[in-house]
Amino acid sequence: MASSSRLSLVFFLIFTCLWKSHAAGRDTLKPGDTLNSSSFLVSKTGKFSLGFFENGISKSSYLAVFHSNKGNSISYAWIANRKTPILYPTGVLTLDKNNSLKITRNGGDPLLLYSASEIFTNNSNIVATLLDSGNFIVQQVNSNGSTKRVLWQSFDHPGDCLLPGMKLGVDRKNGHIWSLTSWSSLYSPEPGPFTLDWDPNEHQLKIKQRGKIRWSSGVFANGRFKFVVPGDEANKMRYNFSIASNENEDYFTYTYTTVDDQSNASEWVLNIMGRLHDFDTKVDIARADYCYGYNNDGGCERWEQPSCRHVGDKFVLKTGYFKPVTSSNSIYTSDSNTSLGYSDCKDTCWNDCGCVGFNARLNNLTGCQFWNGKWEFIEDITDDGTQLFLYTTKPTPNIEGKSTNHLRLSISYEFHIVPQVKNQISQITNI
Ligand SMILES: *[C@@H]1O[C@H](CO)[C@@H](O)[C@H](O)[C@H]1NC(C)=O
Ligand SMILES: *[C@@H]1O[C@H](CO)[C@@H](O)[C@H](O)[C@H]1NC(C)=O
Ligand SMILES: *[C@@H]1O[C@H](CO)[C@@H](O)[C@H](O)[C@H]1NC(C)=O
Ligand SMILES: *[C@@H]1O[C@H](CO)[C@@H](O)[C@H](O)[C@H]1NC(C)=O
Ligand SMILES: *[C@@H]1O[C@H](CO)[C@@H](O)[C@H](O)[C@H]1NC(C)=O
Ligand SMILES: *[C@@H]1O[C@H](CO)[C@@H](O)[C@H](O)[C@H]1NC(C)=O
Ligand SMILES: *[C@@H]1O[C@H](CO)[C@@H](O)[C@H](O)[C@H]1NC(C)=O
Question: Which residues line ligand 2 (CB under 6 A)?
Fold first, then answer.
């Protein structure tokens, strides 16, 4: 684990250098143009970049839009191939002569992002452009370069991130749904357990975990939602929410207004524990990770509880290890299903009255391991070799108490891998 993390850090640094050296790049692909793993598109004023990034753990790569010049606190605003990692560095983005936008790669068919549904003549001026809003579009342009028609846009295919101007809701003309889906694990952008949707009937935002509602925003009234940016009126005022409801579409969108010109950026990221967080302003938008089913504060939904869990019980993140108390009553089980993330392990452990802790099972932080029965938790934040990453239940007395400040440092040191990982780890430590 430790050595692979170090390796990944190196890849990450290479990645950082590459995009910096292309900071003054082009923002547009013309038919026949390509973008390979060592080149980037940069939006007109340099705000966003688009390029392949490598996931050091899996040696796979993803085509992503991200905020430029954010140092190592990048998050990926959009990923083209979440479900289909590409062997690094074989991916090439192409707008071909037939005006199809696709990613070609070694070892698989091309991934088609857009293919023209009509025949365009060779002088019809189709181009693919990365805009300053973070939207990557295929458009038909006028001879003076202005947009004539948008044919395809990344904003119609959200990942785990909502940028100002993106929509959540439904396009009634074709039934297309705009919603966010969390990553499956800290290392994998594959669609995971949490979604953020706009409910067009109730006019509320909803966070669901594998289809079950965990959090609701409250109805939209006077330009506000009761449980969006709860309790923080000053920050709430910085977001301008709007909804549209008509025969063509029903959606929620927002813009960000601020007094401080430097920190204009905003991007809402739905993390792997169900927390919706503004990556740029560090403001919490919604905390579905606080929803245990016994509480309804902050927009949490209630659901049926196992009799052994009580109001106030929760999991906390600690570094250390479990020591068996009596071997017959110290049971350790695991599940190597790679579709399971922390939140799934959390649910399973919560619903099992004997479970006192859990962690991910596999190196890529998927799967679950569980501690059942009698274990003593030993906190150990000093020894790198035995550093563990786990949640424990409140009723175990010797888990409670100490500050997690040290913990936060050591964890962000260990998990440098994908920049967003660092961000998400620090979000999880706050649960
Ligand atoms: C990308 O293209 C450039 C220019 O053609 C080339 O020099 C570079 O080696 C290519 N990079 C990769 C990873 O294929
Ligand atoms: C463009 O479409 C034509 C007809 O379908 C096909 O023969 C040709 O190979 C395509 N060109 C590219 C670059 O895909
Ligand atoms: C566009 O030009 C290419 C060669 O540059 C040619 O192969 C293709 O048939 C042309 N397509 C149309 C629709 O005219
Ligand atoms: C560009 O051309 C289009 C169509 O010809 C026109 O409507 C538009 O006003 C022009 N924009 C500028 C900035 O000249
Ligand atoms: C909020 O956004 C709406 C729709 O974009 C706009 O009409 C309105 O002027 C904005 N209000 C503020 C205070 O920026
Ligand atoms: C901040 O927002 C204002 C108004 O929306 C805009 O004019 C300005 O360019 C933005 N600044 C940055 C740094 O993005
Ligand atoms: C793995 O977990 C996923 C998500 O809970 C589940 O849908 C799937 O059936 C599981 N697979 C196996 C083999 O148990």
Answer: 96-98
Write out the chain's pLDDT in tens, 431 residues: 333 332 333 334 334 434 444 445 799 999 999 999 999 999 998 989 999 998 876 789 999 999 887 766 678 999 999 999 999 999 999 999 999 999 999 999 999 999 988 877 777 899 999 999 999 999 999 999 999 999 999 999 999 999 999 999 999 999 999 999 999 988 889 999 999 999 999 999 999 999 999 999 999 998 999 999 977 777 778 899 999 999 999 999 999 887 555 556 899 999 999 999 998 888 999 999 999 999 999 999 999 999 988 888 888 877 888 888 877 788 889 999 999 998 999 999 999 988 988 888 888 888 998 989 888 888 887 755 344 545 555 544 444 433 332 222 222 222 223 333 434 444 454 33
- What are the backbone angles phi and psi of residue 407, rounded to the nearest 5°? -55, -45
Report the amino acid identity of residue 119: I
Nearest-CA residue for atom 8 of ligand 5:
240
Q: How far is the CA of 273 from the centre of ligand 4 (A)?
A: 47
Cα distance between residue 82 and residue 29, in whole Å:
22
Structure tokens at 414: 């260990």
* Closest atom of ligand 4 to CA, residue 145: 1
- Residues with beta carbon inside 6 Å of ligand 4? 142, 144, 146
Of ligand 2's listed atoms, the one at least distance from the Cα of 100 is 14
